[in-house]
Fold each of these.
Amino acid sequence: MTTVSKQLLLEQWQTLHNNHENYENYALIIKLVATAITLFALSISIATIVTLLLLATIWLQEGIWKTYQQRTVNAIIAIEDKLDLNEAEQTDESMKPYLIYKQFQTNRPAVKALIAEYIGNSLKPTVIYPYVPLMIVVLLF
């Protein structure tokens, strides 16, 4: 691979990586919107089922957003495949950061373990929040 083509791939990798990170910021905005909608729904006494359906829809929207993020990861891995280094180049520390997504994908567990991992991650406070607490609030009021 020529130096120019490698540099273009590295630039594309960096752009996609930055986009991947921006998806996280937008996921937080989706969570804030869910919180605002819940507070609004409670303040004007919207029916509980309607509010719960709105929260479920927003939660699904975040899932769709995370799917777009995963597609960015897939594109990054394709670039990393092109940047895959031969044995001599693997000692070059400047190239190792550009293989992080591929290394992550290589270490991904089998289906059952992956499902268990998804469930475990879904129960983490950073994912449950704000959906389950908001749903509880809606049910209580």
Amino acid sequence: MNKIRKGDEVIVTTGKDKGRRGTIVRRVDDEHVVVEGVNRVKKHVRPNPVKGEVGGIREKEMPIHVSNIALFNPAAQKGDRVGIKVLEDGRKARFFKSNGELVDA
């Protein structure tokens, strides 16, 4: 079970975008995710008349390592570590380590 999933609101803990919040758009692999509005780079694109694309400079979001982000805890208004525990009915659920509150309520 992954501690950070698509659609979660996260906060960046290190790097040039430290402190910026966003939602996870997609998981690239087990260790990298793309966060909306974070780690944006400029890509120089060549025009392609066959596809009808115009050239220029485009901004796109690049993957960021999961160790550089933390799940945002709305109760504490800051990033928090996440743990996994088994509930009474046998299901697994994520919880915030600081206050024990369930993420997937």
Amino acid sequence: MSRVLLSALLLTSCAAEVPPRAEPGDPRVMPVGAVAALDGSFSEGDGLSYAWAVEPEGATLLDAESPFATLIAEAPGLYTLSLEVCDESGRCDTAETWARVDAPGSANKVSDWGIDTFASATSGAGSPGGLMAQDPCDKCRDAASGTSSQWVEYCDTLPTKTTAQKQLQAICYSQQHKDSSERKNWCGWHFCD
């Protein structure tokens, strides 16, 4: 009986020693001057300490030793965001994500994409009630005034043929829990002149 108890104790103590794993979150695209909340809370491990870093210069991090740091985009560019987490035993793991910061007026808007992007049987030109049936700016702002569920339904209508379009849709989804004025500002940046 004591062998069974000893084996169970050994298995339990080994199972508790999970090595740390850093999780810095998804990439993001944002305009100069924007502020983004970084979330490293999905990192794994016991008693973690956090250390965020950004390269190259041109962006600032606040609360860099917290799981919830803040990124302030001060200049256009592609920034590497790294998160190092260390557990109580001193074991560490580092992972990276990125942020693309666009200069004012350089971000892709729907009007930059051309009609063939939207022409299909289910959306855009030729389909009743498709994305182009209403001005993209107005459609986005209408959705921004609605509920979170209506916002997600709107994001589902965005085209996803290219990587840039998929990124835009992912960013759209990330606005779900923002208030309507923040979502309208997002619409203005991406879809309105």
